[in-house]
Amino acid sequence: MAESKANTKKLYIKTYGCQMNVYDSERMAEALGASGYEQTQSPEGADMILLNTCHIREKAAEKIYSELGRYKGLKAENPALKIGVAGCVAQAEGQEIMRRQPLVDLVVGPQAYHRLPDLLARVNAGKKALDTDFPPEDKFEHLPVRPQAKRRPAAFLTVQEGCDKFCAFCVVPYTRGAEVSRPPARILAEARALVARGVREITLLGQNVNAYHGAGAGGDWSLARLIRALSEIDGLARIRFTTSHPNDMGDDLIAAHGDCEKLMPYLHLPVQSGSDRILKRMNRSHTAESYLKLIERIRAARPDILLSGDFIVGFPEETDADFQATMDLIRAVGYGQAYSFKYSTRPGTPAAERDQVDEAVKTERLHTLQALISTQQRAAQDRMVGKTVSVLFERAGREAGQMVGKSEHLHAVHVDAPDLPVGSLRKVKIIASNSNSLAGVLLPE
Ligand code: SAH
Ligand code: SF4
Ligand code: F3S
Known about the structure:
Blueprint: E1 9-15, H1 19-33, E2 37-39, E3 48-53, H2 58-69, H3 72-77, E4 82-86, H4 87-100, E5 106-108, H5 116-124, E6 129-131, E7 154-158, E8 160-161, H6 172-175, E9 180-181, H7 184-196, E10 201-205, E11 213-216, E12 219-222, H8 223-230, E13 238-242, H9 251-259, E14 266-268, H10 276-281, H11 288-301, E15 306-313, H12 320-333, E16 337-342, H13 359-382, E17 388-396, E18 402-407, E19 412-416, E20 425-433, E21 438-442
Parallel strand pairs: 1-2, 1-3, 3-4, 4-5, 5-6, 7-10, 10-13, 14-15, 15-16, 19-21
Antiparallel strand pairs: 8-9, 11-12, 17-18, 17-20, 18-19, 20-21
Bound molecules: S-adenosyl-L-homocysteine, iron/sulfur cluster and FE3-S4 cluster.
FE3-S4 cluster binds at residues 17-18, 20-21, 54-56, 87-88, 171-172, 175-176, 207.
């Protein structure tokens, strides 16, 4: 018998951090759905609040404690309210969270969330529950089959998790664990199921997604092989992947950018710094020159590819000359998009112990770098004016009659087309470049 509405409990999930957390939140909501929880958009009136957290920078982690503090009133109003912390802060600071914030009933790490229903049963029995294991079983195999509901046209699909690279600044190898790839057969099945529910674009996710090596038919599958197999799925129009490491950018993946039609011309390839001295201290095991050579090969395969990157300024011992080398690298590449951060000390990572750069210097370098990036970003966007691009429409815009979608190069594109259904893939002539998006007119089918 179907569960009656009266028995349905409300679950509020708030997601921080990377796309992988977005994917995990969906899967957690589905797992809790099987225990009678239905998602709600606000914490007020919820029976359970779950924060899916990020530990990458200090601010990200601190945000969690202030958010938890805000739930005090809600818990006072409704003592039956359950509060849980999931994700990377849960993994890194599990016990500490319980100690610092007694409101928290449940803590679950990113590799243990398939056990949520059991943990919840413990909480419902009046206990606290903490699970930050790295269990040997594949969590994806222990999660409920994905529901049949119709989906938005663009979806994430995690194919690889964890990291063995140990960059000197980064917590990911500690919070997510060792690199693990899901088997291709399971990924293909999940992709087919998504497409059957209306998905037309899939972004393959992994902390080092291009290090993917899944055990499949005929041996080890590379990411390129997986992409080629996915591109055989009828109805799937677009494939993307993120995030890649320069050292795992194999020849076959570069070639796929040249000849695999469904693979979109956009690549997020973080470099972090343009100074070889700093790259070495970061334990990145590539140089600025090897990165630039790699970009050259990628552009030879796909000349119009739009590149995106991540940068850290003010890494310990970074001098003005080191910073200038980063600026030179950015000028040499010409990015379409980039994310940049002030170095943030993370306890337990090697760089945390080193000589720190002054905060004011970090701030100034960040502003200088961001000004250059935003000029490049705008130039890349402006170059699209007058061109015909293909757009996958994802939602209605803010203005009446407006629809918004993404181009192949991941630019947001607005058109006036009141009757256009979400999920349409259409040619658009770009007529203007605005601060963060393009405007265009729909071309006839
Ligand atoms: N796996 C990806 C990115 C992981 S984290 C990669 O290797 O590129 C996303 C970005 O956060 C990183 O690329 C880096 O630029 C930034 N980051 C990670 N740790 C950081 C720290 N301690 N301080 C500031 N930025 C950091
Ligand atoms: Fe972190 Fe480096 Fe691994 Fe990326 S490659 S997740 S920056 S340790
Ligand atoms: Fe943050 Fe964890 Fe992703 S630390 S960036 S949520 S892998």
